[in-house]
Design a protein that fits this description.
rod-shaped; about 35% helix; alpha+beta; single chain
Length: about 210
């Protein structure tokens, strides 16, 4: 790991995605933090145009910085969809500086947006691990859990209402049957009392 002079406001440290660059002193908004540098590649030269690594920083259609060299401390700065720094590109001078776009406190990780092309090529296939995307995924997971719980509760209430309705229906059916049985018995008894034959001047029930 390359040595960093104590006068610099940053250090290399462990990040969620491996190594990252962290502030060691307050960095004010608009302040130039570090230069992104390395050999300048010419796309018109076949051997240089064939170089491929994830530290290439395109200046123009022709010129590209190969930031994979060990001395380029800025290569440790990770991507963020909601960064606290940005790349200040100066194509004519063939230089790139990383500048703060927010006040950065000691201990905060320094990050900037790598751009759409890099995101699609390297980050989208594996899923962006920046804090903004992690929070977004956590929010979606929480919303999905809440929706699942809501649907479960809805189904449980529906099942309870169905059970209550069935219980009332069964109770009403039993009550109707019981009432019908009493009416039938009373009707049979009345028939027996009113029907009869005269025998020796007395009515006998049959």
């Amino acid at each position: 790991m390359p040595a960093i002079p104590p006068s610099k406001p940053y250090r290399i440290g462990r990040s969620k995605t491996g190594l990252g660059l962290f502030a060691t002193k307050p960095i004010k908004k608009g302040e130039k933090i570090i230069r992104y540098f390395g050999p300048i590649l010419d796309s018109k030269k076949e051997d240089e145009d064939a170089i491929e690594n994830k530290y290439l920083f395109e200046l123009t259609n022709r010129w590209t910085i190969d930031g994979s060299v060990r001395e380029n401390i800025a290569r440790y700065i990770n991507h963020s969809c909601k960064p606290n720094a940005e790349s200040d590109v100066k194509p004519r001078k063939r230089k790139v500086f990383i500048r703060a776009i927010k006040n950065i406190e000691p201990g905060e990780e320094i990050n900037y947006d790598y751009g759409t092309d890099y995101f699609k090529a390297y980050l989208k296939p594996i899923g962006c691990k920046c804090d903004a995307c992690e929070k977004k995924r956590a929010k979606k997971r929480a919303e999905a859990r809440a929706e699942k719980a809501r649907l479960k509760e809805k189904e449980e209430r529906k099942a309870e209402r169905k059970a209550e309705k069935l219980a009332k229906k069964t109770k009403a059916s039993k009550k109707a049957k019981a009432s019908s049985g009493k009416t039938k018995r009373a009707s049979d008894g009345a028939g027996k009392r009113t029907k009869g034959k005269a025998l020796n001047g007395h009515r006998v029930s049959v």
